[in-house]
Structure formats: structure tokens, C-alpha cells
Amino acid sequence: MDLPPELLRRAAAARRVVAFTGAGVSAESGLSTFRGAGGLWGRYRPEELATPEAFARDPATVWRWYAWRWEQVAAASPNPAHQALTRWEALFPSYLLVTQNVDGLHRRAGSRDPVELHGTIDRARCERCAAERPMAEAVAESPDAPPRCRCGGRFRPAVVWFGEALPRAALARATAAAADCELFVSIGTSAQVYPAAGLIELAHRAGACVLEVNPEPTPLSPLAAWRLAAPAGAALPALTEAIARWQPSSR
Ligand code: OAD
Questions:
Q1: 3, 38, 221, 225: which sits with the fewest CB atoms below 10 Å from its CB?
Q2: Whose CA is nearest to atom 18 of ligand 1?
Q3: Rounded to the nearest whole angstrom, what is the distance from the C-alpha of residue 87 to the centroid of ligand 1?
Q4: Is the Cβ–Cβ distance between 87 and 97 less than 8 Å?
Q5: Residue 118 annotated to the active site
Q6: Could you tell me the pLDDT band of residue 250, with boundaries at 50, 70 and 90?
Q7: Which pLDDT tens digit goes with each residue over 188-213?
Q8: How far is CA 245 from the centre of its chain?
Q9: Ligand 1 pocket, residue 189 CB under 6 Å
């Protein structure tokens, strides 16, 4: 892979780094992205499945769709892109991983405390009292309709739906890190869904060097100082190796 020396110099010297990931980072684990060829939103309508209104109208359909996605996630494994990002914790003095993904694959790869901006499909949450339980248990108990909580409310997946606010603490951590980093690496996201995509703009405005890893350009590609137009599963291990090699001489 062709990695520009100036990129490696900057990356190896960076002290505060943010990695920001989207569905593309899990594509090589066999999980569908949302947009683009084969994407979930080409086959399903988000407003019928990923909104609070859809859940109120037809809870069983929404529950079954998330149970199906949860099964795919449970059967998937982290890929070399997730694994490479776990090494960044040791490579940079300050590092935050921010993901839009609900699949939990960063945590399963071993990343410590990633910010999950859109929640997680691993858990179900009562829509009334916010009690949580593992999705595995909730789906096993009731595969075809959302199970009821002790309080009488319905369980739903603990993800963020369109029209809902992002978890406040997660957004605050991500925003603070994006505003204060030297290197912001956007990986496998179409950079179209806000407020998450706004982190790229924030980091760029605050003077960070932006690197985009994505086979396709995105609306925010013009903000990137560098682009690696390659699958994350190839680009991230190569980039990580190269940074690790450059660091001893540059520090
Ligand atoms: P998208 O499906 O919008 O974009 C996936 C991106 O990954 C595209 O830009 C692809 O070019 C890129 N891609 C595909 N394969 C790749 C690979 N092997 N390596 C690197 N990149 C690859 O997914 P997101 O940007 O994550 O939100 O979508 C953002 C949000 O929209 C999601 O969190 C979800 C969705 O609707 C909610 O459900 C609220």
C-alpha cells in the first residue's frame, strides 16, 4: 500500500488522535453497510424500521428486524481493521475511538472504552423505565415481538434511531476529543449522518489533520489532507505497522 511519507511523519508524531468509524469498518466482517451497493437502506426503508414512530406503529416488525441484525452481529467476528485500531491505544499518548456502529465489534476486538455514539445492539432497553438487559436474552425469550419489562413497558434495542438525541455523555466525549486532536482519522463512514459526521468538520475547523480511509469519496473528503482509497481491513494494518516503524525515530 502506498503510504505518503509526510502522512506517516505527521501520524507518527501525533500525540492526540481520534479514530472515527462507520459501517465500512465492519464490512469485511460480513456485515452490510447502510448506503451504497448492497446497503441495508437500499433494501429497507429507515423510516419503517429505525425511528421511534416505526416502533410505536409496528413494534413486532421493528423488533424482528433488530433481532435478525443482532443474530448477524453475534455470528460475525472482528476483522483486521478492528484489530489494528486496538494497537493505537499503545501508539498514541492520547487516543479516543469513536464509532457510529452498534455492532460492538470494536469492544470484541479488545478496544477499551470506545465511544458508541449510536448505542449498541448488544443490549435491550425498556422504553418506559430504561432498564437494560442483554439483547441475547431478550431475543431468546421473545424472538417475534418485544418482550415486556417488569414495569409493563416494552423492550427495544439500545440503539439511537433517526430523530432521537445521541447519548449526551458519549457526544460530549467525542466532541471534546475531536476539538482537541492533532490527527482525526475517519474510517468507513459515508459522512452523511449528523451530528456524528459533524465531528469531522469540527476537527478540521480546530486545526486537526484529517485522514479519510474509504474506497469511495464522501461529501467531507475535501476536508481530508490525505485519503487512503482502500478497504479498512487492508489499509489500517498497513498504516498501523508503518506508524509503529516510524515512531522510534520521530519521538
Ligand atoms: P454508510 O453505510 O452510510 O457508509 C459506509 C461507508 O463505508 C461508505 O462510505 C463506503 O464507501 C465505506 N466502505 C464500504 N466498505 C468499506 C471497507 N471495506 N473499508 C472502508 N470503508 C468501506 O455507514 P455509516 O457512515 O456508518 O445510523 O452510516 C452512518 C449511520 O447511518 C449509521 O450509524 C446508521 C445509519 O443509518 C443509525 O441507524 C441512526
A1: 38
A2: 231
A3: 22
A4: no
A5: yes
A6: very low
A7: 999 999 999 999 999 999 999 999 99
A8: 27
A9: yes
Domain 32-75+119-159 has CATH 3.20.20.140: no
Catalytic position from the list 82, 106, 118, 204: 118
Nearest CA to ligand 1 atom 16: 24
Identify any residues that bridge with 7 across adjacent strands, giving them in sequence order.
Answer: none
Give the residue with greater pLDDT, 184 vs 249.
184
Q: What angle do CA 150, 155, 161 make, to 5 degrees?
A: 150
Mutate to test the pocket of ligand 1, among 214, 221, 228 (most ligand atoms within 8 A of CB): 214
CA 150 to CA 105: how far, in whole Å? 30
Ligand 1 pocket, mutate which of 25, 26, 35, 236 (most atoms under 8 A from CB): 35
Q: For all residues of the chain together, what is the average pLDDT?
A: 96
Residue 76 CA to residue 25 CA, distance in Å, equals 13
Q: Which atom of ligand 1 is found nearest the CA of 22?
A: 26
Model pLDDT for residues 125-174, shown as the tens digit of each residue: 999 999 999 999 999 999 999 999 999 999 999 999 999 999 999 999 99
CATH number at 1-30+78-118+166-251: 3.40.50.1220
0.90 exceeded by pTM: yes
Q: Which residue's CA lies nearest to atom 11 of ligand 1?
A: 216
- CATH 3.30.1600.10 domain range(s) in the chain: 32-75+119-159
Position 18 confidence tier, pLDDT thresholds 50, 70, 90: very high
